[in-house]
Amino acid sequence: MMADKGSPKRSVANNSKKKKKKRGGAKRKMTLEQTVAYKAVSEWVLLDQSNSCSNSKSLVDSTLDDFGVQCYQPKEKLVFEFHSHTTCSDGYLSPTKLVERAHQNGVKVLALTDHDTLSGIPEAMDEARKYGIKIIPGVEISTIFHSRVEFFPEEPVHILAYYSSCGPTKSEELEKFLKRIRDGRFIRAKNIVSKLNKLKLPVKWENVTKIAGKGVAPGRLHVARAMLEAGHVENLKQAFARYLYDGGPAYSTGSEPVAEETVQMIRETGGVAVLAHPWALKNPAFIIRRLKEAGLHGIEAYRSDGKLSVYCDLAEAHDLLKLGGSDYHGRGGQHESDLGSSTLPVFVVHEFLKVARPIWCNAIRDILKNYLKDPSESNLQNIMKFWRPKTSKSNDPHCSANEWIDQCLLWLSKELNNENLETTQLEVSRVLSELNLSYGR
């Protein structure tokens, strides 16, 4: 009898175990497309090659990729962040702290895209090497879109630019372009403060500039923080909803360039142009069509809350890349998405890289050729804004130049065919011999 009573119990227990196994499910296998995409992306991110990367941590230090980043063990989870801000514009974290946050969140590729400035890139790159994070130099450029159509008003449009490890090809020209926008941001912020004072919401200009930080062009978020400190609003969201929104009672424009001209500038300086947060636009379909005609490469279609089908459809309709990020500012609170929280499918990153890598390859070649024509210290200093020597222990410009050239050739070797690479190497060898003599004098 006891055995008979026990038998059903064992049977129930066995069935329960079987059910639990079923609930867990089998691990889903990657499709062929996903496998190809993962391999291509991981090789770019992790330098996952048997002849250059070992699972042994002792060998990791000796292998650097095109960004001067140590290679990882293969098969790590790949987390990407393509939209983030620091205290160099309107973020709350310094570039160093942002990278630390990225590391804590498992981010492997971080695009720093401050508003109208690339000034945070060197600090971010220095910190990123400690954690083996790849930094994509980026910038979110403030522009204005003129519809040229009576019933479509002009509106502000933000365009993200993504550059290679060496930065833009015409860095001085781009910097002048961005400086004009930053100068306009000062005028714009002053006008906003003036409008707030007329609305009986007194805000001190000194407080706005103090919040922005030394040398940082103030934006609406800095004004909103000053309003919060002054007790005029309960939170930042309220400041925008009531006063600072596009066309709002305290809104003001600066000296933003035309959106189409900005897209062309990004292309001319070796960047990939992506429309930021199209869901914030009044006429996204119209603007996307016009910017595509100007040379736009892609649009943001992914956020931390997932894929936005409407914008994926718009991207596909215009043969544009789909990208996305958290737009992280580090302000905290339940309304902000965390860094790295926008989950991009690996095949989306793969499609982005298929467009970006040839553009970046040509950009690096152009920067290298320009340096070979004029191997001056001033030219090298421009390059050093985006690239820092990893192994050179002295301040000798010769050593830095050699190391930078080696890094360029390492990266180009993965992109160019043998004939083009050999031509570039011969030109490098010729100039290096002259460089040795000139620095030896």
Q: Could you characterize the architecture of this molecule?
A:
The protein contains 16 helices and 8 strands. It has 441 residues and is of the alpha/beta class. Strands 1, 2, 3, 4, 5, 6, 7 and 8 form an 8-stranded mixed beta sheet that branches. It is globular, with a radius of gyration of 25 Å. Mean pLDDT is 83; it is low at 1-13, 16-25, 48-65, 68-74 and 437-441.
Number of helices: 16
Largest sheet report: 8 strands, mixed
- Give the integer mean of the pLDDT values: 83
Q: How much of the residues is beta strand, in percent?
A: 5-15%
Question: Measured on Cα atoms, how large is the radius of gyration?
Answer: 25 Å
Number of strands: 8
**Distance linking N and C termini:** 103 Å
Low-confidence stretches: 1-13, 16-25, 48-65, 68-74, 437-441
> What letter string, H or E per element, gives the SSE order?
HHHEHEHEEHHHHHEHEEHEHHHH
Molecular shape: globular
Q: Structural class, from helix and strand content? A: alpha/beta
Helix content: 40-55%
Relevant terms:
8 strands; disordered N terminus; alpha/beta; disordered C terminus; 10% strand; 8-stranded mixed beta sheet; 441 residues
Report a brief summary of the structure:
This protein is an alpha/beta fold. It contains 16 helices and eight strands. The longest helix is centred in the middle third of the chain and has 28 residues, at 171-198.
